[in-house]
């Protein structure tokens, strides 16, 4: 699949003096590794490609799992997004926990037309908590914990007549499972709301890095109600970017925290190519109900053990 790429225009500082005047962080590029989790067909690939290219492309090969690299500017910060678009209908077992550990920020996605995909998000959030804390999960870990940047996104809001999950439910649920932000969007209809998702995730990540726990007591900021959207879109420019596409072959890279590196980067400035793939294996093992329940039991047990050893 090819996607047309926009022109890359990178701001350049002409001299060290200018660089200094414009702020000490002007050259520093922060890298944020994002994983997008969700059931099949909720719109994960559409979201990623829409953000990078501004275009909505109807159909994607459902057998791909891909890392995209995308450089942009958010609130005057140079940010490199590494986005792992996962495969939602995977049948084979994979190392979900390793992938989650690789990531710094998380997008949990459901379709407002599919209640099952909505309910799956609780399980995914649990797995994020579980994997990131390396099994030191307390009984309340599924909820409350807001110290990881996790955004809940309800997609396909344009399909009004097929809606199965209300906005209010999504918002409430987002708070209950400990997300830092909630968005209800239509990837098809609004590029701005898509941009908002990524930019707010970056902001949450940055706040939590500066001050862990800073978002704990806050309600998730809901940013995608139509009347609020305009106010929350960042003034930063998304015009300046580079696009790269990586194959996510290097599973070891994910384990060690190394970003699997780009193989076919920026196709001569002409487009992104979703390269051939590893198969669409990802997280189904742990998303299956029985495995999930086992994980929950393990977590409760380890929590009980740590409580008794504290006493
Ligand atoms: N109406 C509508 N359709 C959408 C929207 N976003 C995505 N779709 C459609 O939903 C279908 C699935 O989109 P994908 O992006 O392939 O979904 P995915 O979550 O990546 O699916 P998997 O690759 O199977 O995990 C496609 O036909 C898209 O065109 C949206 O906002 N509105």
Structure write-up:
The protein is an alpha/beta fold. It has a domain at about 30-210: Rossmann fold (3-Layer(aba) Sandwich), CATH 3.40.50.300. Helices cover about 35% and strands about 20% of the residues. It contains ten helices and eleven strands. The protein has a nine-stranded mixed sheet with strand order 8-7-6-5-2-4-3-9-10, with helices on both faces. Helix 3 (about 95-100) packs across helix 4 and helix 4 runs parallel beside helix 10. It is globular. It starts with a strand and ends with a helix. Bound molecules: guanosine-5'-triphosphate. The site of guanosine-5'-triphosphate has 22 residues, from helix 2. Guanosine-5'-triphosphate binds near residues 43 and 156.
For the structure shown, list the relevant keywords.
311 residues, alpha/beta, nine-stranded mixed sheet, 11 strands, binds guanosine-5'-triphosphate
What's this entry about, in short?
This protein has 10 helices and 11 strands. With 311 residues, it is α/β, with parallel strands linked by helices.
* Hetero compounds: guanosine-5'-triphosphate
CATH level 3 topology of the domain at 30-208? Rossmann fold
Order of adjacent strands in the largest pleated sheet: 8-7-6-5-2-4-3-9-10
State the end-to-end CA separation: 58 Å
Write down how many β-strands occur, each being a DSSP E stretch of 2 or more residues. Answer: 11
pLDDT < 50 runs, ≥5 residues: 1-24, 135-144, 226-289
- Architecture (CATH level 2) name of the domain at 30-208: 3-Layer(aba) Sandwich
Could you describe the largest sheet, including whether it forms a barrel? 9 strands, mixed
Order of helices and strands: EHEHEEHEHEHEHEHEHEEHH
Coarse shape:
globular
- What Rg do the Cα atoms give? 19 Å
Mean pLDDT across every amino acid position: 68
- Reading off the top of the CATH hierarchy, the class of the domain at 30-208 is best stated as Alpha Beta
Pfam family, one: Ras
Region (Disordered): 1-20, 211-236
EC number: 3.6.5.2
Catalytic activity: GTP + H2O = GDP + phosphate + H(+)
């Amino acid at each position: 699949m090819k996607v047309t790429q926009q022109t890359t225009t990178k701001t350049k500082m002409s001299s060290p003096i200018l660089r200094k005047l414009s702020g000490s962080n002007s050259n520093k590029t922060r890298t944020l590794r994002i994983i997008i989790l969700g059931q099949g067909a909720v719109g994960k690939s559409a979201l990623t490609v829409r953000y990078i290219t501004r275009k909505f492309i109807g159909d994607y090969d459902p057998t791909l799992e891909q890392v995209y690299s995308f450089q942009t500017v958010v609130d005057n910060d140079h940010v490199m997004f590494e986005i792992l678009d996962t495969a939602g209908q995977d049948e084979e077992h994979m190392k979900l926990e390793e992938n989650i550990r690789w990531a710094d920020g998380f997008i949990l996605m459901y379709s407002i037309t599919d209640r099952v995909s909505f309910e799956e998000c609780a399980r995914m959030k649990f797995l994020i908590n579980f994997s990131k804390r390396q099994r030191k999960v307390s009984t309340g870990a599924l909820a409350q914990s807001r110290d990881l940047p996790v955004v809940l996104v309800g997609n396909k809001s344009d399909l009004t007549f097929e809606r199965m999950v209300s906005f209010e439910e999504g918002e409430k649920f987002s708070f209950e499972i400990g997300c830092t932000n909630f968005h209800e969007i239509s990837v098809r209809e609004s590029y701005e709301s898509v941009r908002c998702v990524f930019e707010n995730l970056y902001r949450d990540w940055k706040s939590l890095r500066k001050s862990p726990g800073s978002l704990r007591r806050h309600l998730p900021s809901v940013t995608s109600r139509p009347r609020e959207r305009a106010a929350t879109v960042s003034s930063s420019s998304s015009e300046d970017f580079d696009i790269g596409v990586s194959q996510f072959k290097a599973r070891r890279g994910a384990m060690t925290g190394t970003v699997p590196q780009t193989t076919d980067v920026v196709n001569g400035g002409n487009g992104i190519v979703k390269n051939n793939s590893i198969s669409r294996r990802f997280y189904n093992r742990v998303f299956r109900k029985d495995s999930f329940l086992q994980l929950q039991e393990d977590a409760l047990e380890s929590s009980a053990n740590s409580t008794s050893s504290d006493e």
